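pasting KLTH0H13090p for the record, 365 residues
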Amino acid sequence: MSKVVILGAGVSGLTSALCLLQTYPGQIKDLSILSSEWPGDYHAHDFTSPWAGANWASFAQQHETDQITRDKDAYIKFGQLSKTEPESGVKSFPLKMFLLKSHPDPWYVEQNFVEELKVVSDEELRYRNMDPALYKGFEFKNFTVTPNVYNNYLISKIVKLGGKVKRVPRLDTITDIVKVVGHVPDLVVNATGVNAGKLLRKVDPSEVNKVVPIKGQILQIYEDLPYQVMVETLPKELKGKPNQFLNIFPRAEGGCIVGGIFNKGDWSSTVEEDLSKSILAVCRNHVPELKSTTVYNSYVALRPGREGGVRIELSEYPIDGTSRTLRVVHNYGIGGAGYQSSYGSAAELCSKVAKVIASAKTSKL
Ligand SMILES: Cc1cc2nc3c(=O)[nH]c(=O)nc-3n(C[C@H](O)[C@H](O)[C@H](O)COP(=O)(O)OP(=O)(O)OC[C@H]3O[C@@H](n4cnc5c(N)ncnc54)[C@H](O)[C@@H]3O)c2cc1C
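structre below
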């Protein structure tokens, strides 16, 4: 029977916890989630999960088969939740996705993976101020997640399965977990998002520069829209900022989020007013339905990027002052895809730790 500690209460840590409890019901004796921030906390722009859009729109390229596998799971799971557990905060909306014609079709269009897939007409492209000679559009069944509702829903499921939750101060280094819990856990899940590089600096220094923030900026509006809209490359005449795009996701509880930007390497927490103006101008241009909007909040947050993509891998680190080691499985660095690949990443993590869970012999220090 093994003792597992999850470090991090964002969507990656919570989904990993749920998946472990569901996959190894008789083999995990104790599973505790420790974290410095929890759903409901809005003070930290580097605790990313509360700030996500959040919809499903896989960024995986055709050749990134591992990432495609991860993203498929959540599309299916969100479909089930939207039907059977609306209290999860997951609601189905169509997504209208617009791309340059020169871009390859996304894998989920090519594989006909998404449901209710259709091509957007030239007439609609013109209505949305996109030249049909330059742009193409797809529409399909999709989902929006209200982050806080959803993450609390996950916690409630975890607690029902016997998982424990505890707020702790930010740990300086991953092996500090041993002091905090008073024993050497059989397994630690490192789901610390954009802070993972700093947390590993003493034991895995090459991660420090690999983990990078990708700043986003979002406006929340009261107006509704019956579909999501994404324009990946903005027309030049709109004079958007580099890396700016349009995302509009209506939420189950009403209103929409409007974004955004994808600024790699930017740790700042400042809302840029000129970017907010530009986001609204782009929204008005492509979505005449939202010519008039009431912004009630604007914020920035950091996507947890990582060179080489998400790290789902087992490591073993020496524990200072002992001859023991700490077994850690990582689940961080998912960038802008933390919700849409949450179930697939957690499933991959669960299969990687099967032997560790089976061979557990927890002992005191
Ligand atoms: C503007 C924006 C829009 C987005 N839109 C989407 C979208 O539409 N779809 C989608 O799938 N994704 C989207 N994302 C990405 C998604 O939000 C992230 O991928 C996801 O939230 C990452 O979750 P995480 O659990 O890995 O990290 P986090 O949510 O950051 O969680 C990390 C956890 O670790 C804890 N922690 C960190 N360091 C320590 C420490 N030293 N000691 C103790 N605890 C620690 C924190 O308190 C926190 O609980 C968006 C992100 C942004 C910013």
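The chain has one domain: 2-364.
The two ends are 18 Å apart (CA to CA).
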